[in-house]
Fold this sequence. Notes:
alpha/beta, Rossmann fold, six-stranded mixed β-sheet, three-stranded antiparallel β-sheet, 8 helices, 9 strands
Amino acid sequence: MPPEESSPAHPVVTLRGVGKTFERGTVALDGFDLTVRAGEFVSLLGPSGCGKSTALRIVAGLSQASVGTVETTAGHSGGIGFVFQDPTLMPWADVATNVRLPLDLLPGDAVTSRDAVARALASVGLTEFAASYPRELSGGMRMRASIARALVTGPQLLLMDEPFAALDEINRFKLNNDLLALWHDLRRTVIFVTHSVFESVYLSQRIVVMTSRPGRVFAEIDIPASQPRNEEFRTSADYAGYCRQVADALAGAMAVTS
């Protein structure tokens, strides 16, 4: 899975005027605009129910926009990896089989698939657990397996829907660090959904703050802190300042009425 070679200025995802209304009339998104460029790490931040996950599913092609345009250069056949909040691993299959699942749905030979699985497992530190079953793994390790499964096709775009929300703080911090290291090594484009101000600031190059339902973009905030980030950044005055700025924007977004 070599790093992508697209220009940093090249848009991978563009949403213009996207709206989503569900069958029962709930308006999840209204006039939602988003551009994400190659190699960026962008977080969608907002309160529960604001349409963050809906926007992510539209980008992935798992849901269709009711109005507006959606453009992506990543494609929907191996070009996009999706990590859900729940690892959703098959309990009857070992880790390697779970990770190989997306490859089983695509054309390819067994040797290529085996090599891809080995690389994906190595990238998340699970090589020694290839033959283990999900019940034998901790919550953090199951999420690593889920991330490996999303990476096994070598996607250009990685979509992550609150993947660490259910983890304790220690595991969450560790997986935040590991995710940043992985992103730095592979240089994939990442769109990360979270409702945590602190997590969004630590991980992101740019944060898109969304209003309460129906979701719209309220603010976009750049986080220009250098990479790689570590515990020194997490305890720095700069980090605290960015968190205050983002928290203020989130409070403003939540005060907006439709």
